[in-house]
């Protein structure tokens, strides 16, 4: 019994000691709690002081109720804190209807542990005034429950400024869009930062397809990119005034090129550094084509005027020449008529005298000379008569080689005296021709004799003949001095000669008669004579068909 009592007493002492220790721990824990509560109270007091001094609205939302709102909330929203803290106060009544869904979804995401970035929405005050705000939220622990701490910034002024800026930008864009030229801004990285409607239309792209793209890589012909980009670099880095105006093509979406006349300036930052270029460009493709066309038409008109003037001069010259030739022909015909009869009598009488003079007579050697001179006078008379009578003559088919050989026999004496060799080149097709033989014989005789007399001693004369497109082409070339420029327009005129220094000079009728005969056969004659080159006379005479020969024969 005593032992049991002693044990119980001992147990009680141990329990008292344990209880005392627990009491001590409780007092210590209580002191720590009181200390923590004081720290918390001070922290809350400090938070409230800071929150009330904040220029932003700050609130804590717990389970859809506002459990804290700072002084700024009362000032801006028009509600007292008691009204905001009331159990029946609807937090979402503060949010503009069109943004309630956005705020609700953001809060739900927060409560699910997601991070939510700052976003903009609108609130409505107690008096119905709308305020544009930006909210930043954070999920916090409040009384063992999650709550949302929100910091709301009034951005109404900023939004108004942005709206004003946007309206001004839109107005400026409208001005740019109604401009009839391209407006484009290119930054220092060569990227397009602005382009107007006209620029999009000309390039064939939407604005979104252009903004941000490298201007030089996407909108310039490849062959010009380096050159134009080099000018851009100079514009950015050096004197802008040197590049205020420039013309270069751009490349459209469909691959076509448009020529643009650019007026360029630069944009600077606050420090005065050039950060971009601003250019206005006029599409001058059609204008330049029109200018080139006008220039072409102008040149063509000048050419036509020059051609017409030359033609008028040529017609005037031909008329003057025809009048001279007609007058000379009439005079020559009268002279030939007056001389021909006496000359025939002289010729007949001389034949009688010649037969009467024996070969051993001292003056018999003059007989051939007199006979040659009478023939020469007869030839001159015949040429004078031809000037008046320009009949085409009857065409016949004959050997051109035989005719040329006959003419060579007549001029061989003159050629031998001067040491002139004559080369003959007759193409196969030109060996047999159909033209008036008598007229062609006279033409070739005059031109060949003229070439021999114009050639220096010991040189050569060449006669060539060919047929091209039913036309006989004859070229007679000599190595004499070129025909002076000042007399070229006169060499076919009657009685014009440069052989006055020759003992056997004629009347200057050879080339005039030749031209008349060629024109009578519907042909043409021209010459080429340049310093350092041979002189060439060329005659082109259309060949006659057998049917044409019969028609001409009947007509004559």
Can you walk me through this structure?
- It is a single chain.
- The chain has 556 residues and is of the alpha+beta class.
- It has 4 domains: 106 residues, PAS domain (Beta-Lactamase, 2-Layer Sandwich), CATH 3.30.450; 123 residues, Beta-Lactamase (2-Layer Sandwich), CATH 3.30.450; 95 residues, Helix Hairpins (Orthogonal Bundle); 165 residues, Heat Shock Protein 90 (2-Layer Sandwich).
- Helices cover 51% and strands 22% of the residues.
- A 5-stranded antiparallel β-sheet has the order 2-1-5-4-3. The chain has a 5-stranded antiparallel β-sheet with strand order 7-6-10-9-8.
- Strand 9 and strand 10 form a beta hairpin.
- Helix 10 packs antiparallel against helix 11, helix 11 packs across helix 14 and helix 12 packs parallel to helix 13.
- The radius of gyration is 60 Å and the shape is rod-shaped.
- The C terminus is likely disordered.
